[in-house]
Amino acid sequence: MSNKRDLKKDLNYVFGDIIDAALLWQMANPDADATKSEEIIDESIKGFDELIAETNKRGVENVKTHFKGIRQSLETKATELVTKINSL
Prior knowledge:
With about 90 residues, the protein is mainly α. The chain contains 3 helices and no strands.
């Protein structure tokens, strides 16, 4: 079972990489409209904040299933955001 610290690191790394990819796209395409990539960055920050709040919840009945649910949410949100970046 992973602990809370590892889960927080994973959240930070995954969302950080997604934001980096969006910023790299902006630098590689300076003439393109940056509103879509800015929306992806905003979505990443919002998703990170939501999942960190879920991670920091206290008094959870079953910690293992709670963290497993957070990891599944991370995977789905990350896949969705990467798909959006690839479609730019």
